[in-house]
Design a protein that fits this description.
The protein is α+β, with helices and mostly antiparallel strands. It has eight helices and 14 strands. The strands form three sheets. Strands 1, 4, 5, 6, 7, 8, 9 and 14 form an eight-stranded mixed beta sheet that branches. The chain has a four-stranded antiparallel beta sheet with strand order 11-12-10-13. The protein has a two-stranded antiparallel sheet with strand order 2-3. The two termini are 24 Å apart.
Length: 364
């Protein structure tokens, strides 16, 4: 991941994906949510991205994914053009970007969240270093979250450790539609051991893209009720996180997962993304919880794969349950073992000098 020009390799970050517990569904204005959402970042599902700036070359963005040049660079170029008004230096350089994921594409994990989170962290670091601002300040993380949102809404929640909230809510004066905020204080220690078993029902391309799905909320018959439900659920879930109430946590998380899919099933046109094996897994998870009294639950993104959430102290029993009852309903017996994470990580050893201009007059 090193550049060909001297001092070209400038910033490299590792950013996790996240899984929403209270779902964001429906947009307004530009990449702003109709309702607040609450999520946690994963530990093992992440994207590593490096950004190199060059003065030479004709191509604005050269984007390499898993070592091969990718057409995703076109989306990155549009994104850079959109944010260039905030960073005067962007239009003066060509970008060489290398990126790779720790998880397979279409694995039921939000790759756009980790991808744009990592890219936003690189851009924010470049800008803060160029401006002489402190990169470990709250302002840095807020700016990175805001930039990530402009690429992919859910990405704004990936730049923090643990749990975060995106969208205005009465819970926090600092909450915003522009960026996420961290919930680092006050969460009961029981949730520090949260686990996520991602049960792969179908790794194929989704029948409806997230952007199309969000637009279907614009004229949705249940839009106002859904927004009210999300606000109520975020209040209930935050209280559960503070008090360590696993029963309330389970009730809200499953209600949110099914509500998301109810919105898709009742939109016009409607989409049914759950597969027969998705429903079988949901039923088996609920039966296991009832029979064993072990606190497990499910959540689902806009696809057929099931995220089974459980707690560290029950790991052996739950993994035995997966092997015994659930793998038969997973595509090729595949599942991904993950857990709550500690957030992004800077991978560069310290920023190198900015590449000089052709006149040798300095960075800009």
């Amino acid at each position: 991941m090193t550049g060909t020009a001297k001092h070209a390799h400038l910033s490299q970050w590792k950013c996790p994906s996240n899984i929403a517990l209270v779902k964001y569904w429906g947009k307004r204005d530009f990449q702003k949510p109709m309702n607040p959402s609450l999520s946690f970042v994963l530990r093992n599902a992440f994207t590593e991205t490096s950004v190199e700036l060059h003065k030479n070359g004709d191509q604005k963005v050269t984007y390499y994914f898993e070592g091969a040049e990718s057409p995703f660079g076109e989306r990155i170029e549009k994104y850079l053009n959109h944010v260039s008004g905030q960073f005067t230096w962007i239009n003066k350089y060509n970008f060489r970007i290398h990126s790779h994921n720790s998880f397979p594409h279409s694995a039921g994990i939000a790759s756009s969240a980790s991808s744009f989170g990592a890219l936003a962290l690189c851009l924010t670091e470049l800008d803060f270093v160029h401006s002489g601002k402190e990169t470990d300040s709250p302002e840095f993380w807020q700016k990175a979250s805001e930039l990530a949102r402009m690429g992919s809404g859910s990405a704004c929640r990936s730049v923090y450790s643990g749990f975060s909230i995106w969208g205005q809510t009465q819970l926090f004066e600092s909450s915003s539609d522009e960026h996420a905020i961290t919930l680092s204080d006050g969460v009961n220690p029981v949730f520090s051991g949260l686990r996520d078993a991602i049960l792969m029902v179908d790794s194929g391309t989704k029948e409806v893209s997230s952007s199309v799905g969000h637009r279907l909320m614009d004229e949705h018959h249940y839009q106002r009720s859904r927004i009210a439900q999300a606000h109520e659920n975020i209040n209930e879930l935050y209280l559960a996180l503070l008090t360590g109430d696993q029963e309330k946590f389970i009730a809200v998380v499953e209600n949110e997962a099914l509500s998301l899919h109810a919105m898709m099933m009742t939109s016009n046109p409607s989409f049914l993304l759950l597969k027969p094996n998705s429903l079988e897994l949901i039923n088996r998870i609920r039966r296991f919880r009832e029979k064993s009294q072990i606190p497990v639950c499910f959540t689902i993104d806009a696809g057929p794969n099931i995220h089974m959430l459980y707690f560290q102290e029950n790991e052996l029993d739950v993994k035995a349950f997966i092997e015994r009852e659930l793998l038969a309903f997973c595509e090729n017996g595949k599942w991904i073992d993950d857990r709550i994470g500690s957030g992004p990580e800077r991978l560069s050893d310290g920023l190198m000098d900015w590449p000089s201009t052709s006149s040798g007059a300095g960075p800009i």
